[in-house]
Design a protein that fits this description.
It contains 17 helices and 21 strands. By secondary structure, the protein is α/β, with parallel strands linked by helices. An eight-stranded parallel beta barrel has the order 8-9-16-17-18-19-20-21, surrounded by five helices. Helix 4 runs parallel beside helix 6 and helix 8 packs across helix 11.
Length: 533
């Protein structure tokens, strides 16, 4: 009996210790949750008697030093040249750390952030900033826990998307959006630049793309499903100059975010065809779309002029965007025009293709060949699987996970962003009357957090082809920066933890506790996030 009581006492003690440890970790407010956290006894006082040093004159380290200095100034801590209390940013390669990994150690009068590259240092600073926010304030400064964090991301591709084709957002907000991506330790900004409803990127060789294609005559009012359709009668549009693009890319580079442009083809191309109707299958005059949905007009695959046009555009895009990827869409491309157009049918016969699906595959493969010559990787939505996949294409799976599974099993790299877990234009409550107008669907914060990018039924040896995942923000019903924030955040926080943290550590109750600190950060940043109930 006494033996049983002892075991019960021991078990209860261990549970209490574990709960206390978990509560301590929750109180740190860290999102995404680091891989390993060891909390030691005692506190470290960060006051005005500290200095920052680093072991390398790399320009990025100077930027990181400035970033950290500003963070401390926000907490009314002014750094000085005291030699005994140092925050050290150390880049070294003998710790077995990958590019994005870092170690953060706080103990007595030393704070150390170690990484093998500047972007690892950047992520360490993000964690340090969160500790500053959640730490106890004394009359002299901040009392930080003595702690050792060893951290690394689970996935390479940790992305957020923004559609600027349906509604346009100026570069001041694009920069802010990149800040949100970076503070979540995400590393991809997927910039959806062209659509039926607007072409948003200046192309020198084809000025009418922005002179005509960047503007629509008016915009749908209310829901697509409200009949009859009503319009606001106001001309709408905008585009980014090459200087704008350059500014955004440099801004993102300093935050270790890769900008991936999307230039839609062969479908979702009505704005381009309004500017250059001779590239359509009808040769008729077209107008930039003023209503949402899928439109029949599509680039003509039977005309060589189409590929000359697209190669010229992609060459300019490749020169603007230094990253390794260009997204070409490839989704929702109706085949109606190809089925009835003599040149497209001739192309099918001449190339010994079976049908219009194989014609799309032919189209995508030709585009991939163009991008390959430009030293770029092609990414496309999972429709590019239809008719045969281009050899080096990366598949972004949105119609569920099946397309991603097929692609990975065929040894193609995959980005998982299924509508079920990754479409942040969906409603955030089942009571839609309490939410702003959205495209439909329902995607709660908890459902995003449940997302698992590696499906159970994929062949084990093919898991390595899953690059990661991405949250998508389509803007048919999102026309202001404030509404983008409301729809994207805090679901972005949940997606960030899914893509960074270990699967075994994910716990929604813990996440909700840590989000209380995240909400305070968002309040201080004046973000129009949705307060999850």
């Amino acid at each position: 009996m006494l033996k049983n009581l002892f075991y019960i006492f021991l078990l209860t003690t261990l549970i209490l210790i574990a709960c206390k440890e978990e509560n301590n970790k929750n109180n740190l407010g860290l999102i995404p949750l680091p891989s390993k956290i060891e909390i030691a006894s005692g506190k470290t006082l960060v006051d005005n008697q500290w200095s920052i040093k680093h072991n390398n004159n790399h320009t990025d380290l100077d930027y990181l030093k400035d970033l950290l200095t500003q963070s401390l100034n926000n907490h009314k801590i002014t750094l000085n040249k005291y030699p005994n209390k140092t925050i050290s940013l150390v880049i070294r390669t003998d710790d077995g750390l990958n590019d994005e990994d870092y170690i953060l150690n706080i103990h007595k009068d030393k704070i150390l952030i170690i990484a093998s590259s500047p972007n690892g240092i950047f992520y360490g600073i993000q964690t340090f900033n969160q500790l500053l926010d959640s730490s106890e304030r004394s009359k002299n400064g901040l009392l930080l826990p003595n702690i050792n964090i060893v951290d690394q991301p689970r996935f390479k591709w940790r992305g957020m998307h923004l559609d600027v084709g349906r509604h346009f957002f100026d570069i001041s907000f694009i920069k802010k959006y990149i800040d949100y991506i970076a503070m979540h330790k995400m590393n991809i900004f997927h910039w959806h630049l062209t659509e039926d409803q607007g072409w948003r990127i200046k192309i020198n060789a084809y000025p009418k793309l922005t002179e005509i294609g960047a503007y629509r005559d008016e915009t749908l009012i209310g829901s697509y499903y409200d009949k009859p359709h009503k319009y606001d009668g106001i001309k709408y549009g905008g585009f980014y100059t090459k200087k704008d693009i350059q500014e955004v890319i440099e801004y993102a580079r300093k935050r270790y975010v890769t900008v991936v442009p999307e230039i839609e083809m062969p479908g979702h191309s009505l704005a381009a065809l309004a500017a250059y109707p001779e590239l359509s299958c009808t040769d008729q005059k077209h107008a930039v779309a003023k209503i949402w949905g899928v439109h029949k007009e599509i680039f003509c695959a039977g005309k060589e002029s189409t590929f000359i046009f697209l190669e010229t555009i992609l060459t300019e895009v490749a020169e603007m965007f230094p990253g390794p990827f260009i997204h070409i869409g490839g989704d929702e491309a109706p085949k109606d025009r190809w089925e009835k157009h003599a040149l497209d049918q001739k192309r099918i016969i001449d190339e010994n293709l079976k049908d219009e699906h194989e014609l799309q595959s032919y189209f995508i493969k030709r585009i991939e060949n163009i991008l390959s010559k430009l030293n770029k990787r092609l990414i496309g939505w999972d429709e590019i699987l239809e008719g045969g996949l281009a050899p080096g294409a990366i598949v972004q799976s949105w119609r569920g996970m099946d397309g991603g599974i097929v692609a990975a099993n065929a040894k193609h790299e995959v980005i998982m962003s299924p509508t079920s877990h990754a479409y942040f234009d969906y409603y955030q409550s089942e009571d839609k009357d309490k939410e702003p107008l959205a495209i439909g669907g329902f995607l709660s914060l908890e459902k995003v957090y449940e997302f698992e990018p590696i499906p159970e039924d994929i062949e084990p040896e093919k898991i390595k082809y899953i690059l990661g995942g991405q949250g998508n923000v389509w803007t048919e019903y999102i026309n202001t920066p404030q509404k983008v924030e409301y729809m994207a955040i805090p679901r972005m926080s949940a997606m960030a933890e899914v893509l960074w943290s270990k699967k075994s550590d994910r716990d929604f109750e813990s996440f909700k506790e840590r989000m209380k600190w995240q909400y305070k950060r968002l309040d201080s940043m004046k973000v129009n996030y949705r307060k999850d109930s």
